[in-house]
Amino acid sequence: MGERSAFAELVRRYLPIAQRTALLLGAGPDADDVVQEAFVKAYRGLAGCRVGAPFRPWLLRIVANETKNLHRSISRRRDRESAPVDPTALFPMLSTAGDPAERVGNDYEALRTELLRLPDNQRTVLICRYLLDLDEAETAAVLGVARGTVKSRSHRGLGKLRSALDQAAMVGEGVRHD
After folding, report:
1. Contact 60, 68 (CB under 8 A)
2. pLDDT digits (tens, 9 = 90+) for 119-142
3. Architecture of domain 96-178 in this structure
4. Is 43 exposed, middle or buried (CB count within 10 Å of its CB: 0-12, 13-18, 19+)?
5. Which of left, alpha, beta for 28 (phi over 0: left; psi -120 to 50: alpha)?
6. Where are the beta strands (DSSP E) in the chain?
7. Is the confidence at residue 87, as pLDDT, over 50?
8. pTM for the whole structure
9. Which CATH code is given to the segment(s) 1-86?
10. Distance between CA 128 and CA 145 in Å, rounded?
């Protein structure tokens, strides 16, 4: 009985970050299902969590894996139905509809657009690092990659974002740079 109440406390403590992670990694309206499945898997796999290791990165890696599973499922379904999927449907948290960030103007929209254009591996690293505020080690643990991979993907992704946003700003100001 003590194990269940201790795990219930872990759920209360980590539910908000697990939900944000699922949303920011693209679970969309299925985020609650992804998080629920992640907690079920975490409970069943508690023995696999290293003693002394932080729980948060371990749990968030399960959430990230469940989100990847969701993406695969969506992809398979999309392929079967041959219907194009709007990428913003996979990232509703970046939608500006009814969002206070909408008031900051075109910069937010440009950032959102360019973030969605990044390769998946760079986008997920940037989401973990800057939207979920995870450090490099936590990001590496969540995504199941080496810390150096997090660094290189962050560097490349940020470079692409800067370049794209600079170019969009120049076009917006009427300056063409071919």
Report:
1. no
2. 999 999 998 888 888 889 999 999
3. Orthogonal Bundle (1.10)
4. middle
5. left
6. none
7. no
8. 0.57
9. 1.10.1740.10
10. 13
